[in-house]
Design a protein that fits this description.
heterodimer, A: 596 residues, OB fold (Dihydrolipoamide Acetyltransferase, E2P), Rossmann fold, 35% helix, 23% strand, B: Rossmann fold, seven-stranded antiparallel β-sheet
């Protein structure tokens, strides 16, 4: 173990420890406290004193205990073997900890994040004498059937380029720490690297360039893809009080979205929810590849009863893993559930350090931290000249469901898409309870060209039309609340009718139904068009004098209401047939009218 | 550097048990002491006053200058020079054993009933350890409480933590007692136990629970940890921890299914605030400390099931919402940790409905995997969904009726009003002693839906309508 003593404990106040007698400690250095070697991070230096936040329960630490320095910032290990693993907030592998320490999280047990003994089959993609740049792949390891894990030249090398490969392992099986490549810089200095690298979690990994966002992240959730789309590389906040379905929405997106890789951060949430993900994901099959969803998922579980400082770190651990896969040219979606717990961890630690609070006890640097986190998302050209993206889907848990609190407000400043969850909808079991009035997406115009390339250029107009109807409905509902629905003419009542149909048949989506849980883009747009066509044809019929009761009684309306359950993604012609039947029924209505 | 550096090399275990005389400051339940050997954070402390009375405390803050100790039995009667403190060098532990069932203990696990201290089979740290998320087993065994609104709409699952959000004067104690009495797991008869933690409640309330356990003949399976309203408020902060420590022993070592009832969580949080304020910590909302969420989570997360172990811990915390405000920090933070909530409604109570559970904000997050075919009944998930949806429309109709008058409503809306009345008066409402089977509950749900026309039932399938509607 490290024998460099950086100081002695002066004061212990929960997870915040003051140390004195500082010699050569470094800011953000990873330290071990006491003879139990609790993991901690040095967060403040002040003369001969420093403040350390520990990532484990500090019981038993006494003044005078030694603090050992590692000389490294708090870092994650990056390499093959990450995929499908469940880690805690500081990247300790939980399954391994369970083997070592039993069912409960004992203190002071550690294990490397990546298994050192496992052999990985490496195939090189460069040869001796090739020029490489930092961040460029030199070979690939098939991490599982689905993920080809590219081994990259470390993004930061000493010396100056160009770098020349002078040694590269030939195809074969190696443990992660074995040197597989040696490069030489322009000054003939040699550097070696293995399949495993370290990266400090609080530092964004470098990229060559940011690119404009133009491709939607398809989630299979209709209200999102059709009304409030998220772009690949974009950021979105999902705020909602407890019980409004944040976690359910996050799960649904993690399961069905078309990202290559999912990093799911359970930050200060319930233990049983993480267990749910753990037990469920291996059995869920990705509709696009037919493979288990766990093969593309990394879980970070720092439940609410695990140490608060590890909760603060878990967000950074997760995003660093995501950036690493982005640098290999993958599209990664990060689910952070919930960023409020992270902000509260900041508040708790800040309070213990006796810093001056700003709003509601949160430290004044809260907005900076939130901004830094969301800015790590983006659609990038990597150093190795590939394209990859990190999208962040951050849940926010506002106290009392009140969106005016600091975390929601500051988050709103730094995200471009907002899926507000509504308690009234959740109470009526309208799930996902994404409010169509509070939510917005700034990506609509940016992803519109993508829809054109998919041959669905009508999306922008259809979306605008249904959004307008929903707005008109709100005004009409206010009238109805005062005078009852009978006071409205049929033409206006029909708006209510169409919107109600749109809500039950389209916006609601049952995450537990085998057919309804996921809709392809094709199904979504056809469903939307079907409902709009009911609106167009129906309004026309009403203008000709057909009563709304007759429209409502058409058998085809029932079919539309149930289409989300009855029409599977593979069977979209059925939707065309319903559309035909709708036209026929409407023309028959017209016929009755004509004869009269 | 002074004394502490010389001491740093010493084996600390040699120093444990050392006694010091004379405190430098006493403030509420906190004692400040100077010039001690280096004391570990969270260490157990024994405090002896000049009359020789012993009290238990814990180190809250330790530094080279001073140690801050909180005394769970209060500080009244202590003098600065006469206070003797013994630092035990180990965390606060509880001797646990099955013998504690049937006993009445105080918040620290000391007998209140005059008996002798139960001999412990094991000594456990009262703070417990977090369960490794990979070791958890996802809870999915349905507990039948015999209460329709819970079984049907907010189903309780073994290993769940489901709080009751109530208000002063509402019958939450009756409901908790009824659940404790009637709760049964459908699968097989299993060993069960109840751990009851009372924090700052009145003696009558504790008496009510004891009587109710006695009447139903389960008292020998109940361990009671009582820290009543006239006990030192600081004791409340440790009471749920000792109770849960015993619960963990019974569940995960002895393989019992343990139901933990904790009342009243509001008092617990108030005590935390008191200590936090005394220490001059920076408050967050309404003066509660910033770590309230983490602190509550340390309690609530001590529930669930563990892979490969037989027992389970199901928690039923009760909290009274100050001013009936569900947005108050205590219910709010609780709701973010627990797996749902049962919310009481004063207006329903006023109309004589027992239990006055408002179905709409109530929720059971674990329900989805514990109900349906093979667990309760195949139609249960859709039926529950339909009842929620229809009942939420009833609220709209009632609002409309209060504006335009009932006569102006459409006939469909009248049917909704009828449904709403049936639902509240027949489905939700039941007597304190009535124990309904899950079949009775679900059939009653269908009877309520029969007040509505079949085409209004969009959440249930045609087959379910065929099989149950109007029968």
């Amino acid at each position: 173990m490290p024998q460099r003593i950086v100081g002695q404990v002066k004061r212990v106040n929960g997870p915040v420890i003051t140390i004195q007698g500082i010699t050569d400690a470094m800011m953000m250095e990873l330290v071990h406290v006491g003879e139990q070697l609790l993991v901690g991070e040095l967060v403040k230096l002040d003369g001969m004193e420093a403040v350390v936040q520990v990532y484990e329960d500090a019981t038993g630490i006494a003044p005078g205990d030694n603090v050992y320095g590692t000389g490294l910032p708090l870092s994650v290990e990056l390499g093959p073997g990450l995929m499908g693993t469940i880690y805690d907030g500081i990247q300790r592998p939980l399954e391994r900890l369970r083997e070592l320490g039993g069912d409960f999280m004992r203190r002071g047990i550690g294990s490397p994040s990546i298994d050192r003994s496992k052999l990985w089959n490496f195939s090189p993609s460069v040869g001796i004498g090739d020029m490489v740049v930092p961040g460029q792949p030199v070979g690939v390891v098939q991490e599982n059937e689905r993920i080809g894990h590219k081994i990259l030249v470390p993004p930061v090398l000493t010396g100056t380029g160009p770098y020349t490969v002078i040694e590269i392992a030939s195809e074969g099986s190696f443990p992660v720490e074995q040197t597989i490549c040696t490069v030489e810089d322009s000054g003939k200095e040699r550097q070696q690297f293995s399949m495993m690298q370290r990266w400090p979690i609080r530092v964004p990994r470098p990229v060559a360039d940011r690119r404009p966002l133009s491709i939607p992240l398809i989630t299979g959730q209709r209200v999102i893809d059709m009304l409030f789309p998220l772009a690949k590389g974009g950021t979105v906040a999902i705020p909602g009080g407890f019980g409004t379905g944040k976690t359910m929405t996050q799960h649904a997106i993690a399961q069905w979205c078309d990202a290559d890789i999912i990093v799911y951060i359970g930050c200060g949430e319930r233990g049983n929810e993480m267990t749910d993900v753990l037990r469920e994901f291996p059995h869920l099959i990705d509709p696009r590849t037919g493979r288990s969803l766990m093969e593309r998922t990394i879980l970070i579980a720092n439940t609410s009863n695990m140490p608060v400082s590890a909760r603060e770190a878990s967000i950074y651990t997760g995003i660093t893993l995501a950036e690493y896969y982005r640098d290999q040219g993958y599209h990664v979606a990060v689910m952070a559930d919930s960023t409020s717990r992270w902000a509260e961890a900041l508040r708790e630690l800040s309070g213990r350090m006796e810093e001056m609070p700003a709003e509601e006890g949160f430290p004044a640097y809260l907005p900076t931290r939130i901004a830094e986190f969301y800015e790590r998302a983006g659609y990038m050209t990597t150093l190795g000249q590939q394209e990859g993206s990190v999208s962040i889907i951050g849940a926010v848990s506002p106290p009392g469901g009140d969106f005016s609190e600091p975390v929601t407000q500051h988050t709103k400043r730094f995200v471009r898409c907002f899926w507000g969850l509504d308690r009234a909808l959740a109470s009526a079991r309208h799930y996902p309870a994404i409010s169509w009035l509070d939510s917005y997406s700034e990506y609509v115009s940016e992803v519109a060209p993508w829809w054109e390339t998919q041959g669905e250029s009508s999306w922008v107009e259809s979306r605008a039309e249904i959004m307008e109807l929903l707005q008109r409905e709100v005004r009409l509902q206010q009238i109805v609340k005062l005078v009852g629905p009978d006071a409205l003419p049929d033409s206006q009542n029909f708006i209510l009718e169409v919107c109600s149909l749109f809500k039950t048949a389209f916006l609601q989506q049952n995450a537990f139904d085998d057919i309804d849980r996921y809709s392809t883009v094709g199904k979504q747009i056809r469903m939307l068009q079907l409902i709009l066509s009911y609106w167009h044809l129906g309004s026309e019929a009403i203008s000709k004098g057909v009563t709304m009761v007759k429209l409502r009684r058409m058998k085809v309306v029932q079919e539309i209401a149930r289409m989300r359950f009855s029409v599977s993604n593979e069977n979209l012609e059925e939707l065309d047939r319903i559309a035909l039947r709708l036209e026929r029924s409407m023309s028959q209505l017209g016929g009755i009218y004509d004869e009269r | 550097m002074t004394s502490d550096n010389r001491l740093a090399g010493l084996d600390k275990s040699l120093l444990s048990g050392r006694e010091y005389v004379g405190a430098s400051r006493i403030d509420g339940p906190l004692i400040y002491m100077r010039n001690t050997h280096p004391i570990g954070f969270g260490e157990l402390v024994e405090c002896i006053d000049s009359a020789g009375r012993r009290r238990t405390g814990q180190v809250l803050d330790t530094s080279t200058e001073a140690v801050v100790v909180q005394l769970f039995e209060g500080t009244s009667g202590l003098t600065l020079p006469g206070t003797r403190m013994r630092f035990m060098g180990e965390p606060l532990t509880l001797p646990v054993s099955e013998q504690m069932l049937g006993r009445v203990l105080n918040g620290l696990g000391h007998p209140r009933d005059g008996g002798s201290l139960p001999r412990g089979e094991d000594e456990l740290d009262v703070n417990g350890l977090p369960i490794n998320p990979t070791a958890r087993e996802y809870p999915r065994d349905f507990i039948q409480t015999g209460i329709s609104v819970i079984d049907g709409l907010t189903t309780l699952i073994q290993g769940q933590k489901l709080p009751i959000f109530s208000g002063n004067g509402l019958p939450h104690n009756q409901l908790a007692a009824q659940i404790a009495r009637q709760a049964k797991v459908l699968a097989e008869s299993q060993e069960f136990a109840i751990v009851f933690a009372a924090m700052g409640v009145k003696y009558d309330v504790a008496r009510f629970f004891i009587d109710s356990f006695e009447e139903s003949g389960v008292l020998e399976n109940v361990a009671l940890f009582l820290s009543l309203a006239d006990d030192p408020s600081i004791e409340r902060t440790i009471t749920p921890r000792t109770a849960l420590t015993l619960a963990e022993h019974l569940a995960f070592t002895k393989g019992k299914h343990v139901l933990v009832i904790m009342t009243d969580m509001t008092n617990y949080c108030e005590s935390l605030r008191e200590i936090s304020t005394l220490r001059g910590e920076i408050p967050s909302r309404k003066g509660y400390p910033g770590y309230l969420y983490s602190n509550l989570a340390e309690l609530y997360e001590r529930s669930g099931k563990i892979l490969g172990r037989d027992g389970s811990i199901t928690q039923l915390p009760i909290l009274t919402m100050p001013n009936d405000d569900i947005g108050h920090p205590i219910p709010d933070l609780t709701g973010y940790i627990t797996e749902g909530q049962i919310v009481f409604d004063r207006e329903m109570h006023g109309r004589g409905i027992y239990p006055p559970v408002n179905g709409l904000p109530s929720l059971s997050r674990l329900m989805k995997d514990g109900i349906g075919e093979g667990m309760t009944r195949a139609d249960h998930p859709h039926l529950a969904n339909q009842l929620f949806a229809s009942y939420s429309h009833v609220k709209d109709v009632r609002n409309l009726a209060s504006v335009i008058g009932e006569e102006e409503l459409t006939s469909l809306d009248h049917q909704y009003l009828e449904f709403g009345n049936f639902f509240e008066k027949k489905f939700v409402s039941q007597s304190f002693t009535e124990n309904r089977s899950i079949e009775q509950t679900l059939d009653l749900g269908w009877k309520a839906l029969a007040e509505l026309p079949a085409e209004e039932l969009q959440r249930v399938t045609d087959e379910e309508i065929e099989g149950h509607y109007g029968r």
